[in-house]
Write a structure and sequence with these properties.
mainly beta; globular; Small ribosomal subunit protein uS17; 0% helix; 81 residues
């Protein structure tokens, strides 16, 4: 089974070694066709505390690291300038 990966935006870095990453899913409504934006927030492990709010990151699924943390930061794609 392949490792799941997602790309999203860091919305919080207030915890130690943990960031909250928001992933947007844009899909048309099944009946009305309007594009609906659904946002899902994942807690991801950031070992070196390198991620800052506004960074675009790629996260990948990993074993459970805590009660709510099941993802880890694979790479920082671009930083907030």
């Amino acid at each position: 089974m392949a490792i799941k990966e997602r790309v999203g935006l860091v919305v919080s870095d207030k915890m130690q070694k943990t960031v909250v990453v928001a992933i947007e899913n844009r899909a048309p409504h099944p009946k009305y066709g309007k594009i609906v934006v659904k946002t899902r927030r994942y807690k991801a492990h950031d070992e070196e505390n390198k991620c800052k709010v506004g960074d675009r990151v790629r996260i990948q699924e990993t074993r459970p690291l805590s009660k709510t943390k099941r993802w880890q930061v694979a790479e920082i794609l671009n930083t907030k300038a």
